[in-house]
Amino acid sequence: KKKKKQKKKKKKKHKQNKRIETASTRLSLSLSLSLMEVATENVDVESGNTSDPEDNNCSDNDFEPSKLGTKEYWEEAYQKELETFTDIGDVGEIWFGEESMSRVLRWMDKANIPQNAAILDIGTGNGAFLVELAKHGYSNLTGIDYSSASVELARNILQAEGLTDVTVQEMDFLNCHGELVGFDVCIDKGTFDAISLNPDNSKEGKKLYLQVLKDALKDKGFFAVTSCNWTKEQLLDRFSEGFDYVQELPTPSFQFGGKTGNSVTALIFKRVY
């Protein structure tokens, strides 16, 4: 009995330590999100928009390069999340929070997106959005991420939820070589942000992203993007070629200096050519 008690105490202490470690990791991720929000350069304080000094549109150097745009950063982050899930069953960080998923789901309901629609989650992370989509009744789901730890974590979480019909693949969206086609809806929650911060190929990455997105979507397919780096005007400019703007989804707003703005932007586009 004494040995059993000691064993239970050790196990309890291990879980407590793991929760502390997890909280530290979450804080790091939250700080990373904050850094993404302030990474914009050339910001006009009055309007809150970033402008290109040459043509008043988005420049190819909108943001300072950051480790948040590197595969190594996310591989390390999701490896820690994977270890935490294995140890104590904690699913990890939900990027932009649960409300970011709920607002897209509400739009899908109002837009009457069929439950058998082919849906792609770009940069799926821990697969939390795939879980919510599946619970919402959507049955043709695919998630991709270039982090192997992310993919393993997402698969483990889906399996724990009993959701075995969801596809999760290790794949770099910018280097998928035409493997992604025929989707009715593509969802991005922070991946375009990360690509924009890549120290190596931000300029080319943003251009390539647009082309791969067009290839992945069916004609008249929808693109739902959530960003903490880009304003509505910037996203409209970035996705003006080949897409029609459908609507902006409501996000939390703030006031500063008599001006009102949003820390997160969520837009819906439709592929037209």
TrEMBL record:
Stored Pfam families: Methyltransf_31
Molecular function terms, GO-annotated: protein-lysine N-methyltransferase activity
Keywords carried by this UniProt record: Cytoplasm, Methyltransferase, Nucleus, S-adenosyl-L-methionine, Transferase
Alphabetized InterPro entries for the sequence: Efm4/METTL10, Methyltranfer_dom, SAM-dependent_MTases_sf
Region (Disordered): 1-23, 42-66
Comp. bias (Acidic residues): 52-63
Record-annotated membrane-spanning stretches: none
Top-level taxon: Eukaryota
Compositionally biased residues, Basic residues: 1-17
Every Methyltransferase domain range: 116-250
UniProt key word RNA-binding: no
Catalytic activity: L-lysyl-[protein] + 3 S-adenosyl-L-methionine = N(6),N(6),N(6)-trimethyl-L-lysyl-[protein] + 3 S-adenosyl-L-homocysteine + 3 H(+)
Record-linked Gene3D superfamilies: Vaccinia Virus protein VP39
GO cellular component annotations of the record: cytoplasm
GO biological process: methylation
PANTHER family: EEF1A LYSINE METHYLTRANSFERASE 2, PROTEIN-LYSINE N-METHYLTRANSFERASE METTL10
Protein name: Methyltransferase domain-containing protein
Species per Swiss-Prot/TrEMBL record: Etheostoma spectabile (orangethroat darter)
